[in-house]
Amino acid sequence: MEAVPVDRMAEKVSTPFYCYSAAAIRGRIGLCQSAFEAIGATIHYAVKANSNLAVLGLMAEAGLGADIVSEGELVRALQAGIEPRTIIFSGVGKRRAELLAALDAGIFQFNLESLPELEQLADLCRTRGCTANVSIRVNPEVDAATHRHITTGVKGSKFGIPIEQMASALNLIAASDGLQLHGLAVHIGSQIVEPEPYRRACRRLRRWVFDMRAQGHAINHLDLGGGFGIDYGDGRCLDYRAVAAVMEQELGDLAVQIAVEPGRSLVAEAGLLVSEVVYRKEVEPVPFLILDAGMNDLLRPALYQATHQLVTLKEPDGVPEICHVVGPVCESSDTFLRQVSLPQIAAGERVALLHAGAYGAVMASGYNSRDIIPEVMVSGDHYTLVRRAVSYRDLMAYELPE
Ligand SMILES: Cc1ncc(COP(=O)(O)O)c(C=O)c1O
Ligand SMILES: N[C@@H](CCCC[NH3+])C(=O)O
To answer: Which residues form the active site (predicted)?
Structure first.
């Protein structure tokens, strides 16, 4: 990774740790910008994928906006230097205080996900005598054929306003003093590897834009969300240019500003989870490699049966063997890889799990009273600790009753 051997970092930063490449992130940002800016779309990085301040700093440096889902993400985005006027606030459960914080920050747009949320924001604007740009996040009922835990745009999903409630939403917005209708938003899921689901979503949006304009509503903004899939090792991924082409074909004549909210695809491939083999457990029929990283550090395999390929940090030698790769957490689902062919790896050797830059560190927990592990960013020929470990001692802090 860049010019710093990961093994050298592991001498200084104890394993397990996350390691990101600034050059790899900048490379992905460049590809994303050249595809979407060519169709005039704006890019709002989905902060949830990796909210490390150093990562957000790279997004700010490139002039990207942000898609946030909490006050915490708002504060991080602002701290990293992302312009408030480029921030979109998504999420089904935005609390009053969070809406208020975003109003105070002067963000670009609120994506409304329910009628009660809409009324809450209208009430806040009335009380404060201010206005807010809003888009209605509609549930487009498009199945993006991804893992069921990360599909978001199908009937019965908790995300977005059902199309049957669109008329009520429009009436409430029209009746409010403070809400200014910008447009519509959809987000159909994550790790989508085909452009076709986007085409279906665009076609639905297109019809709604015509319907709403016919009713006299000004629809000037369409937010297509994120979800662009990366290659986790099976060769399947989505090229930004393919999605941008679909958006241009389906929506290009509507005179709307298009926005996208990529998360995973900007950061996943730029991250490694570096770990050490604690033990080799020689059992029949398949030996176990037991790592010092566990499901509390990288939850994706346990939660979504996701595969993160493993590489060794030294030159592989000997005949490959079939083994299971597991973590130390007391759950059978704390398994990174089952029945995988790897070069012989001894206890004490270091390995790296690939494509761990998205939905890795951000989903970590202190389960089993383990530490939250550190994060390192490599840039050129140097590396920086960009988040310290949080020790189980700090996670233990609690107030004793008087
Ligand atoms: C509203 C919204 N926008 C953007 C994203 C980013 O998705 P991805 O990381 O798959 O690009 C998500 C997450 O799925 C989301 O919920
Ligand atoms: N956390 C998921 C993606 C969720 C996207 C957010 N809606 C993953 O690791 O794949």
So the answer is: 330
Catalytic residue check, 330: yes
Structure tokens at 15: 């394993």
Whose alpha carbon is nearest atom 9 of ligand 2? Answer: 359
CATH superfamily of 8-12+268-396: Lyase, Ornithine Decarboxylase; Chain A, domain 1 (2.40.37.10)
Cα(144) to centroid(ligand 2), Å: 14
- Give the CATH class of 90-260: alpha beta
CA–CA distances in Å: residue 336 to residues 173, 299, 376: 48, 9, 22
Verify whether ligand 1 is closer than 6 Å to residue 140 (CB atom): no
| Ligand 1 atom 10 nearest Cα | 227
What atom of ligand 2 comes closest to residue 191's alpha carbon?
Answer: 10
Tens-digit pLDDT profile for residues 80-115: 999 999 999 999 999 999 999 999 999 999 999 999
312-330 confidence digits (pLDDT tens): 998 877 899 999 999 999 9
* ipTM score over 0.85, yes or no: yes
Question: Which among 159, 144, 230 is positioned nearest to 189, based on CA atoms?
Answer: 144
